[in-house]
Design a protein that fits this description.
The chain has 491 residues and is α/β, with parallel strands linked by helices. It is built from 14 helices and 13 strands. It is globular. Bound molecules: nicotinamide-adenine-dinucleotide.
């Protein structure tokens, strides 16, 4: 396909032969014998600490265009998520000439809670775990954001993800601010019983921040509907009555909404298809698509794009990837993943590394794994026409510039993967009202919300002569700024 879009603004590891729990290794499950490889990462503080910002914003470093933070990213991510988030904000703040007081306010997270807590494991030993919950900005309402279980979770990562949630909720015009939380843990190394106990204790530790009118968690990497059910139950037990609206992404049988599980991936598909139609005069029919990550977002994006005619030629997970130029049979792949724990060694496909997948000559590349994947080190290798950001923060600001120069259109995360939080909002509303919608209604309202706000973003790219990311940020920041000025600065 011709790269006809001109933008305006100037480590794979080895997979287990079979995972003991028979899952794809992303969303928890039983271990074989109750032993765990979790290493308790204990920070030098011994009790939960609420650090109530404001803190001094990190100084900008002209030699480090993505912003300075004293944080080394994990080896498989080449950039600190927090540095990326600050760098993105600073660039847009410069572009829109945002007041310095607003810039410093928005660079700063409002509340940060670090907790260290014990869990009695199946073998009788006690393991210490460390978790976080961060509120970035609560001006527009209660804060909303996922909970991540991953060995590389850090406070900085939670800050970045909370900040992105603030922009995403404002862009979707939802009455929320942004939050994020997580625990440093490899969830697949825990038994189901250990995972439940760890979840209930973590939620108890961060419970002063939670509640349907205060902070509403949702699933993210390494957590799923079952984990959300335990969170909802824990909060409900503390209060003495059921509070379904305390969390979203929970099972339908306890007050979840139909359509939430597929929402993020389906939203990526709606947005990508609409952008392709508007910018390239074609839909997804026979579009070659590569997807990095085959968890909730990656698998639903692949499925829903395929249902609309796309050929999914490459898919990866944390162990590596597979490639078939004629298209991968997704139903058979799901079975293969359930049996082996990975997409690797799938019949009829070639093996590609995650790095190679990012460089495939495809129409659409969907990074749907973790942040910091497309950086200044590999952006020049990207050959896709469109990068549709299913993950949060997969592209650094430096990579953005390289992609722009190459004519690659980037659909930014805060609109591309917003289907999840939009349907989470519907779930919260349904929970508060105890009145539930059918799936057609959920999908119709989600598509309308996403496409209305996409129109606003595209209109802004034309008016302000900027990229989609800059346009999306401008809209979000203007909405938050207006709300902040109207509310005033207490006291
Ligand atoms: P998940 O845990 O269900 O799946 C993550 C997938 O990424 C797995 O297949 C895993 O093997 C793979 N992976 C992990 N590390 C990798 C690496 N280094 N290289 C390649 N693949 C790797 O998580 P998810 O819920 O699908 O979330 C994926 C991304 O989407 C995250 O950035 C998350 O913040 C974002 N997101 C999720 C939602 C949601 O509703 N779940 C909503 C918006 C954004």
């Amino acid at each position: 396909m011709a790269k006809n879009i001109k933008l305006l603004e100037t480590t794979d590891s080895t997979p287990p032969a079979t995972l003991a729990n028979g899952t794809n290794g992303t969303n928890g499950g039983h271990g074989t014998n109750g032993t765990t490889t979790v290493s308790p990462t204990i920070a030098p503080i011994t009790s939960p600490v609420i650090s109530s910002a404001p803190q001094e914003a990190p100084a900008l470093d002209e030699h480090n265009p993505i912003g300075a933070t004293p944080y080394d990213p994990p080896a498989d991510r080449h950039a600190s998520a927090y540095a990326v988030a600050l760098g993105q904000l600073d660039r847009v703040a410069d572009f829109m000439q945002l007041d310095d007081d607003m810039r410093v306010y928005l660079r700063t997270c409002q509340r940060e809670l670090i907790v260290h807590f014990p869990v009695k494991m199946d073998d009788g030993t006690v393991q210490m775990f460390t978790g976080f919950r961060v509120h970035h900005n609560a001006t527009k309402g209660p804060v909303k954001g996922g909970i991540r279980y991953h060995p590389d979770v850090t406070l900085d990562e939670c800050r970045a993800l909370a900040m992105w949630m603030t922009w995403k909720c404002a862009l979707m015009n939802l009455p929320y601010g942004g939050a994020k939380g997580g625990v440093i843990v490899e969830p697949t190394a825990l038994s189901k019983r250990e995972l439940e106990k760890m979840t209930r204790r973590y939620v108890t530790e961060i419970s002063p921040l939670l509640g349907p009118e205060r902070d509403i968690p949702a699933p993210d990497v390494g957590t799923n509907a079952q984990v959300m059910a335990w969170i909802m139950d824990t909060i409900s037990m503390h209060r003495g009555y059921s509070i379904p609206a305390a969390v979203t992404g929970k099972p339908v049988s306890i007050g979840g909404t139909v359509g939430r599980e597929s929402a993020t991936g389906l939203g990526v598909t709606y947005i990508t298809r609409s952008v392709m139609k508007q910018r390239m005069g074609r839909g997804l029919d026979d579009a070659a698509v590569a997807v990095q990550g085959f968890g909730n977002v990656g698998s639903w994006t692949a499925k829903t794009m395929h249902e609309r005619g796309a050929r999914i030629v490459a898919i990866s997970d944390k162990f590596g990837g597979i490639y078939n130029s004629r298209g991968i049979d997704l139903r058979m792949l799901q079975r293969h993943v359930a049996d082996t724990g990975s997409v690797l060694n799938f019949n009829g496909s070639d093996t590609v590394s995650n790095e190679e997948l990012l460089a495939l000559d495809v129409d659409v590349l969907v990074p749907a794994a973790l942040e910091g994947q497309i950086t200044k080190l590999n952006a020049h290798k990207v050959r896709a026409t469109i990068v549709a950001e299913g993950a949060n923060g997969p592209t650094t600001p430096e990579a953005d510039e390289i992609l722009q120069d190459k004519g690659v259109l980037v659909i930014p995360d805060i609109i591309c993967n917003a289907g999840g939080v939009v349907v989470s909002y519907f779930e919260w509303v349904q929970g508060l009202q105890s009145f539930f919608w059918n799936e057609g209604e959920v999908r119709r309202q989600m598509e309308a919300t996403l496409l209305d706000n996409l129109e606003a973003v595209i209109g802004t790219t034309t008016r302000r002569k900027c990229t989609m990311r800059t346009a999306a940020y401008i809209i979000s920041i203007e909405r938050i700024e207006e709300a902040m000025r109207l509310r005033g600065f207490y006291p």
